[in-house]
Each structure stands twice: as C-alpha cells, then as structure tokens.
C-alpha cells in the first residue's frame, strides 16, 4: 500500500470531491467541504477510510495533504466569491514544523482568500503542541478552524477552551441517533441541542453533518444549528458538477 501511495503521489492519482454546506436559516449554499479520493489505476476510486491509515502511519499524509491542497486551490479559483472552502487536515500534517508556512504559501500562490478558507481538524484530544501552534498561526491569519467529528472519538471538551476553534462540527453519529429506533430519540435531540448551545455561547458556528432525511434536517434546525451538511442537501461531487449546477 505504501509503495502504491508513493506512486499515486508521483502520478497525481488523487482527486477531490466537494460536498455542499447549507445555511439552515436561508437554505443557501455557504460553501463546500473538500473530500479526498484516490483514483487507483486498477482498483478504481478508493475512499479515505481505505487508505488514510496507511497514509498517516507512513507519514505520506504530509505530501498527500500538500498535493491535495494545491489541487483544491486550483479547482476553486473560478468559484463564486462568497463560497467557503473547508479542507480536512491530519493532525500529523499540522504537527510538522513548516505546516503553517506551507499552507499559507499555497494559499498565497493561488490567491485563495484567508476568510473563505476553513481548516477542519479531528481528534484534537491527541493533538500535539506543534499542531496547536499551527492552528493558532492559521487562526491569527484570519483562517477559520473547524473542530470535526465533535462528540465522538477523541474530540474533547478541553479542546473547546484551549484551541482557537471557530466552528464546531458535530459528529454524524449524533445526527443519525435522531432516527435511531432502539434508543430514546429525545435524548439524542437534547445532546445535539446542548452542543449547539455550547457553540453559540462560545461564539462558534455550529454545523450538523450526516443529514440524510428531511426529518433530521428539521430536527437540527430546531436544535439550533447554523449550518447543515449531508446527502439530504447534496452528495460529494467533482467540482465541474457543481459549477454547471450553479
Ligand atoms: P469527515 O471530514 O467527517 O467527512 C464527512 C464524511 O461523511 C465524508 O466521508 C462524507 O462523504 C461523508 N458523508 C457526508 N454526508 C453524509 C451522509 O449524509 N451520510 C453518510 N453516510 N455519509 C456522509 P469521506 O469522504 O469518505 O471522508 C471520510 C473522512 O476522511 C473524513 O471525514 C475526513 O476525516 C477524512 N478525509 C477526507 N478527505 C481528507 C483530506 O483531504 N485530508 C485528510 N487528512 N483527511 C480527509
Ligand atoms: Mg471534515
Ligand atoms: Mg466529520
């Protein structure tokens, strides 16, 4: 896998899909999240869950992340000015000494405005001091930081007060719990609502992801979320699909 990932880097086999994020107040698309795919010459399109671990363990996530960022910046150059772009970064990439400089250089080369750019980071419970310093530098440069997958895995409450987080993205399993039949849905709703309240009190934007049904969309609106993302609003698609749709 690692040798193949090196070849994938050399041959530029990585692609990016874009999933819309929608304002739950105005129903307008406010931006897109960039999601990485690997177009393997024999196996076809491979999802992150099937290569991200190897990429992380081998450290190849660092050059892969930079190559992806280059591609994303080039692809969004023609987009409408008001659209945000959210890009996922691995804590490992953010921990490298030059991470902030490399990200800022790429944005400058492509004229990508800082106020439209969002860094999504997950597993901040295990984030290093170096990654925290990278996030602070980027935040000071006017780039927004989103804490991804909040409420599941390693995303911790401590991160909310310790790190410069602008956007709280609640994990999709919490959204899906709204439609769960085995457990009381009222509890799922209260958990979601409380997280939205924390975000609001901290002055953060709140995003609910993994929204698949109209009922879930209605519930996250009631729970107070600012923004929604999920198959109900739109699946991840190549950039040309969005441009022709706009
Ligand atoms: P994530 O950042 O939390 O992204 C959300 C994932 O949920 C995406 O999976 C998306 O396709 C999927 N999704 C969105 N809406 C729905 C829905 O309504 N229902 C369901 N069942 N799924 C939905 P994807 O694209 O497979 O990405 C998985 C994870 O891989 C991402 O989770 C992110 O942590 C990571 N990832 C993706 N692209 C990159 C990247 O460029 N760099 C890094 N470091 N990680 C990435
Ligand atoms: Mg994300
Ligand atoms: Mg997520």
Can I get a quick summary?
With 246 residues, this protein is an alpha/beta fold.
Structure commentary:
The protein has helices at residues 2-10, 52-58, 61-76, 91-95, 99-109, 129-140, 157-162, 172-176, 185-201, 214-222, 239-245, and strands at residues 14-23, 29-40, 44-46, 84-89, 117-121, 144-150, 167-170, 205-208, 227-228. With 246 residues, it is an alpha/beta fold. It has a single domain (21-35, 81-245), classed as EAL domain (TIM Barrel), CATH 3.20.20. An eight-stranded mixed beta barrel has the order 1-2-4-5-6-7-8-9. α7 (157-162) links the parallel β6 (144-150) and β7 (167-170). Bound molecules: ligand C2E and magnesium ion (MG) (2 copies). The site of one magnesium ion has 4 residues, from β6.
By helix and strand content, what is the structural category?
A: alpha/beta
CATH topology: TIM Barrel
Which ranges are low-confidence, i.e. pLDDT below 50, for 5 or more consecutive residues? none
> Ions, cofactors, ligands: which are bound?
ligand C2E, magnesium ion
Q: Give the fraction of residues assigned to helices.
A: 40-55%
CATH architecture: Alpha-Beta Barrel
Q: What's the domain count?
A: 1
CATH class: Alpha Beta
Largest sheet: 8 strands, mixed, barrel
Fraction in beta strands = 15-25%
- Please compute the radius of gyration using only Cα atoms: 18 Å
Number of helices: 11
Distance between the termini: 38 Å
Q: Write down how many β-strands occur, each being a DSSP E stretch of 2 or more residues.
A: 9
CATH superfamily: EAL domain
Give the integer mean of the pLDDT values: 92
Spatial shape: globular
Strand order of the largest sheet: 1-2-4-5-6-7-8-9
SSE pattern, N- to C-terminal: HEEEHHEHHEHEHEHHEHEH
């Amino acid at each position: 896998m690692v040798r193949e990932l090196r070849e994938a880097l050399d041959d530029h086999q990585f692609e990016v899909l874009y999933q819309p994020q929608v304002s739950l107040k105005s129903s307008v698309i406010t931006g897109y999240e960039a999601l990485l795919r690997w177009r393997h010459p024999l196996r076809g399109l491979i999802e992150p869950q099937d290569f991200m671990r190897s990429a992380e363990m081998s450290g190849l996530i660092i050059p892969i992340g930079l190559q992806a960022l280059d591609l994303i910046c080039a692809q969004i150059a023609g987009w409408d000015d008001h659209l945000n772009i959210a890009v996922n970064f691995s804590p490992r990439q953010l921990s490298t000494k030059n991470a902030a400089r490399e990200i800022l250089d790429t944005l400058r080369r492509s004229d990508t405005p800082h106020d439209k750019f969002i860094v999504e980071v997950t597993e901040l419970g295990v984030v290093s001091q170096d990654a925290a310093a990278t996030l602070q530098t980027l935040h000071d440069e006017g780039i927004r930081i989103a804490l991804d997958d909040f409420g599941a895995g390693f995303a911790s409450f401590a991160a909310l007060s310790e790190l410069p987080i602008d956007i709280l993205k609640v994990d999709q399993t919490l959204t899906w719990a709204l439609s769960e039949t085995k457990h009381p849905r009222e509890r799922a709703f209260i958990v979601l609502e409380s997280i939205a309240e924390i975000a609001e009190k901290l002055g953060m934007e709140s995003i609910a992801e993994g929204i698949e049904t109209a009922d879930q969309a209605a519930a996250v609106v009631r729970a107070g979320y600012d923004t929604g993302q999920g198959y109900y609003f739109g699946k991840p698609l190549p950039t040309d699909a969005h441009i022709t749709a706009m």
